Model the fold of this input.
Amino acid sequence: MNEQMQAETRVGIEALGLYVPRYYVSLNELAAVRGVDPNKFAVGIGQELMAVPAPDEDVVTLGANAALEALEQVDRSQIDTLIFATESGVDQSKAAAIYTHHLLDLPRRCKSFEVKQACCGSTAALQMALAMVAQKPTRKVLIIAADVARYGLGTAGEPTQGAGALAMVVSSQPRIMAFDSEWGSYTEDVMDFWRPNYLDEAVVDGKYSIKVYLKALAESWAQYAEESGFDHADHSRFCYHLPFTRMAEKAHRQLAKLNGLEVSDDTQIEEGLRYNRIIGNSYTASLYIGLTSLLEGTTEDLTGHRVGMFSYGSGCMAAYFSGVVLPGYRTHLRPNRRVEQFETRVPLTVEAYEAFYQHELPRDGSRYLTPQHETGHFRLSGVQDHKRLYERASRSAKAAPAHAAQDVALAG
Ligand code: HMG
Done:
C-alpha cells in the first residue's frame, strides 16, 4: 500500500471528551471508617479518591456530558452513528444512546444503540466504529463509554468503585490518534465478575478476576504481536484497563516478563494512571480515561509514538491493540479543563457517600422528583409512569455534603 492510500484509510480519534461526577470520597477517610490501614487502599490498591455520582446522575447524564465536550470541535450534523457502551444501563430494552441522542440534539439519521461486554464494551464499540468508517470514510461515529462501578458497602470491592464517562469521535480525519489495524483478542467463559439483572451491585471473585485479567493479557498480546510484528520496544507508552491503578503495574510487569525483560519500566504507564487514581473504576470508560490522562499529562511530545492498549471485560473478553499519536494532538485536548473539573469537585463524608449510594428511585411507577445536586449540564430530574425524565441542569445547585446527605435521606 503506498503512502497516499495509507493516509486515506487512516482511522482514529478526532475528538475526545471526559466527564466525572462532581462528588468524591477520600479513600483515606473510607479506610478510617472501615477500620482498614489507609496504605492498603493508597499503596496496595493504588487509589486516592473515588468519584461518586449524585442521585440525579446516571450513565445517560454522565455520557451526555462527556459527549458535549467531544462534540465541541465536530459538526454534530455529521455524526452518522452513536454507540453507547455501558454495563450500568438504565433500561433492559431502550438504549442509553437514544436518551443521549435526544439530549445532544443529534440528527434523526444518526443510528443510536447500546453495546455490552463488561468493561470491554467500549472497545467492541471502537472496533465496530473503525470498520464502519473504513467502509465509508465520510462517516463519523460517536462512541460514549459511561459507567458507575458499584460493589457492596464494606466489601473488598468497595474501594475499587468509581464513575465516569469518556466520549470519542472516530473518523477518517483523526487529530489525536490513528489506530493500527492488527488486534489480538481473547474470549473465555469465566465467572470472575458479573451482575445478574436483579442486583444493583456486581458480584465478584476478586483474586480470581486478577488472574483471569493477566491471562487474557498474555493471550491477546500474543496474537497482537504475532499478527502485527510489533514487539515491546515498538511501544513508547502502555495503557491498561484500570479497575485500580495497581492492576496496571501488575499487568505491565507481566508484559515485560512475557517479552523477556527483567524489569518493567513504570514511567511507560504512570502518566496514564493519574486520572484513574482520583476517579476510580469507570468500567467501559476506564481504559480511555487512562489514554486521555496519558496524552494530557505527558510533558514530552508524544507525536509519532505508538501506545499499546489492553482492554479487559470480565466474563470475559479482552483485546490488545495500539495507536499512533498524531501531529498537533495537543491542540485538540483540554488539560486545563481537567484541572478545573477535578479541583472544583465536592468532597463527601463517608456518611454522605453512603446516603448517595443507598438512594433508590421508586419502582412502582409513581412520580418522583430527584433532589437537585451538583451535576454537569444534564441531570435526571425524576421518574414518572416508569419513564426516566432528563433535563438540562441549571448548574446553580450548590448542595453542601451534609445537605446532600440530608436531601437523600428525606427523599428515601
Ligand atoms: P482484597 O481482598 O481487599 O485485597 O481485594 P488484598 O488483601 O489482596 O490486598 C490488596 C493488595 O494490597 C495486596 O497487594 C496486599 O498485599 C496489599 P498484592 O498482593 O496485590 O500485591 N496490602 C497493603 N499494601 C500496603 N499497605 C498495607 C496493605 N494491606 C494490604 N497496609 C481486590 C482486592 C482488588 C481483589 C478487591 O478490591 C476486588 O475484588 N475488586 C473488584 C474486582 C477487580 O477490580 N478486579 C480486577 C481485575 S477484573 C477487571 O478489571 C474487570 C472489572 O473492571 C469489571 C468489568 O470488566 O466490568 C472489575
Residues 1 and 140 are 24 Å apart (CA to CA). Residues 37, 39-40, 43-45, 87, 118-119, 156-157, 160, 192-193, 204, 206-207, 209-210, 213, 241, 243-244, 247, 281, 283, 312-314 surround 3-hydroxy-3-methylglutaryl-coenzyme A (CB under 6 Å). The radius of gyration is 20 Å. Residues 360-410 form one domain.
